[in-house]
Fold this sequence. Notes:
alpha/beta, Serine Threonine Protein Phosphatase 5, Tetratricopeptide repeat, Rossmann fold, 4 domains, five-stranded parallel beta sheet, two-stranded antiparallel sheet, 7 strands, disordered C terminus
Amino acid sequence: ALRSTLYAIGTDVPRDWLYVDRTSLGIQRDAVWIDVSAFLSLVAQSRAHRHEQQLLCEECAAWLKEALALAHSDFMTGFSLGESAEYEEWQAFQREWLRREKAYALRRLGVYYGHLQEFDTAVSYATQWLAMDTLHEPAHQLVMQLYAASGQRDKAIRQYQQCVELLDMELATLPSNKTNELYEAIQAEKAAFFKRQTGEIKRKTSVLPSSPALIVGREQALQDIRERVLESNPLTIIQGWPGVGKSTIVAALAHDPVIDKQFPDGVLWVSLGESPSLMTELGIWADAVGLKNLKGDSTLEGMMSQIKTQLKNSRMLLIVDDVWQVEHLTPFNVGGQNCRLVVTTRLNEIAQALAPTARDIYRLSVLTEVSALELLRRLTPESVRQYPDESRQLVNDLEGLPLAIQVAGRLLNSESRLGWGVAELIKELGDGAKLLQAQAPSDMVKMGQDTSST
């Protein structure tokens, strides 16, 4: 069946369109114009264009606008292969990746036109970005800033109120400190946004995670890890339990202003998980650093070699999150001597295998009782106020794990907002935590697999 299918494809499609070897079949992208390839190429050109400041230049903006003109709908909308779970998973991944690239373009153009004082255009791009995910606080923040900068303070305040309502309704959570501080500054008319920029613009090359909306009790850990990176340690490995907050802390590190200044060429981040697609993930890095044509090196080793050459003289921070196997890290260890690498893993044996010395491993501990209780209070203030002793017992039952506390806090806040008593739910959550503790360690590993990130 496979042989006849390949023959049929070769009969119906011009031969020079196809790339065929003993193990793979694909499309020769030089021979056929593909909208997705053109879109990604334009975005990659913008990412790789280097300037003296972090804003877009006119040429970068033109590339992103051209890319958005191609992104009129989601990837392969209306087409599916219901009988092929592998294809559906691949299509979903590609769709999410392309949506992320589109969001990047919209955000950058919103900021670009804001600095040009063309606020109507800027708001148009920012609201399109927000429409892609109405729960994404940075998008709300950008719209608020643009309204405030254009003299529409009332609209900026309404945008904040809409953000609060959406987060409460959909996630039963509160806005981040950054969103609240922005709102207070707009109310007090104490902040100025989008001053016109002069001089040459510098472009950074970055692939970034979302900035964490809520971090409690991790100030010292973030400072310790930052100091390790700034002390010229080529490798820092963060190890800790599933749900302890490793992904959150490296996301905060990626957006840290001190790190931003120390690594002027940008940050490259990836989250792997148990079964990563190494070629796909490394391809995102390749696009980001401006490698648009890798057909001559279609192997993982060839792509690594080209990225290493590209980064030879760069000063970048590379972050590889959630490593499960030693060999999964190898393709992403592509930085030059001025780059630094930060790795996270839940597995102690992986941390030990990767670390040249014991000092290269940073053990991220659970939250203290005080910090854990404060995190719960931030998520569900009324529950903690009414049941302080039960809340303290709950965070101890949850062993100070931020992920577990976040889940519990949102459940409690949701029921509290509905006017239901939460004392019984607090007890049930605590009992559930004790049941999990009584199970074998392998079951804790399975629990970690059910989360999207460490």
